Amino acid sequence: MPHHSRGGSSSRSKSPPWDNDDSLAVKPSNSLLPLSTSNGSLGGSSSKRQSARAWQIWDTPWGTKLFVGLIIFFYMGTGGGMVSQEHILFWTGVYKFNYPMFTAAAQLICTQVLLIFFSYLTRLLAPVLNFLQFGFAIAPPDPPAYQKVQGWGWGSRGGVLEFEWKTGKKFIFVSAVFSLKVLISNFAFAYGQFPVYQMSRILTIPFALFFATYLQSQTLPTTILSSALSVAFGLFMTSLRHVRFAPEGLIAGIFSSFFTALYPFTLLQAYNIMVENLNTGPTSPGGSLTYEDHQRAFWRLLYYINTFSLMFIVPLSIITGAWHEVYRTCYFLDAGFFWFMLGLSGLIGTLCFVFMLGMVRLTSPLDAIVATGPRAASTTALLSYFRMQVYSWVGFIMTWVSAWWYFKGRREMLRWEKEDRSRDRTLYEMH
After folding, report:
1. Which whole number is the average pLDDT over 275-300?
2. Helix (H) and strand (E) counts for the chain?
3. Average pLDDT over residues 174-183
4. In whole angstroms, how far apart are CA 233 and each of 72, 243, 342, 397?
5. Residue (of 274, 252, 307, 296) closest to 158 by Cα position
6. What is the DSSP secondary-structure string of 172-214?
7. What are phi and psi of 136, to 5 degrees?
8. What are residue 3's DSSP bridge partners?
9. Is 420 helix (H, G, I), strand (E, B) or coil?
């Protein structure tokens, strides 16, 4: 871990050359694991709160695997729930609310409100969450004086939800990618039937393999490439249906696949930039990053991305007349159930937003994209009420088997990299 000086420059102790990788695209991803620190304080809590409990869940290898497994489970579950909710909102029921731009703006507004609400709620319930071993969900307290900024915006006094233009401008690109991902995905879902939407999104996995190779400079083994492409082909077989073809929905789905695949890679880079920003600069005392720094970076990055996305989409939706069209043509705006469904869409979208960052940090952007394959296959079977053709069931099984093959290969790949690192470190120390 780098050690930064007060002047903002970085200096390292004697370390092997592989620790000098300054790439912001690939870094160790175990910084979010809720483990106890060496001084006895709980990960995610202040250094004043010492570990006084006799039992710890996450400090064991089994607990670490359980935590990562829970993140993957909720990431896939919330993603499937979001697709199902979009299907209900756009295509089923009495309302059939076919206004994707207004829906995207409403989802982002709901996310902004929920981020602020949960940041204060988790602090208020900190003793209970710490007792239940969920301290990692607590928004960190105010930063030290050297890290405070004169921000503006909601929650600027809370430390986590501050807004500073000098810092925020570094995240305009990832916010633009996220905005296009949300907006075009809504258009793809609204103007194309669900099977068309699923088939157009199959390109997400090939795009992700391309980005992993050329943006992260990874050399992917044959097992990873073959299994990932097999997931995509299995999902294609699962989604294949005879439905009315909508060119606009297919084109929107293809563009949505590109931005959906690009977003996790830009998100990981933005997270590492945020972490570096918290511990560098002329007013920073330097030192190694703490778990609390990673927690603060996690919350603050979500706030920055959603704030900029609101700046992009809300004015665009007003200029294009989406709000006026909804007000003029929708006769059910006084129905409480409609607003409940729209709010539920915003809540599930917020959970997807949060768990995407957790998934990317604990695994990798490519893993986050490949994991959408079995989730999409399960969602397809669910929304088809499990009445699918034989070839679709073959594709469903193929998708899950290929996903298992991928993650098994990924685990072997990480084990080999760890062994190579250990061997190279031993040779370096001997030298």
Report:
1. 69
2. 15, 2
3. 95
4. 22, 19, 33, 11
5. 296
6. HHHHHHHHHHHHHHHHHHHHS-HHHHHHHGGGHHHHHHHHHHH
7. -65, -15
8. 11
9. helix
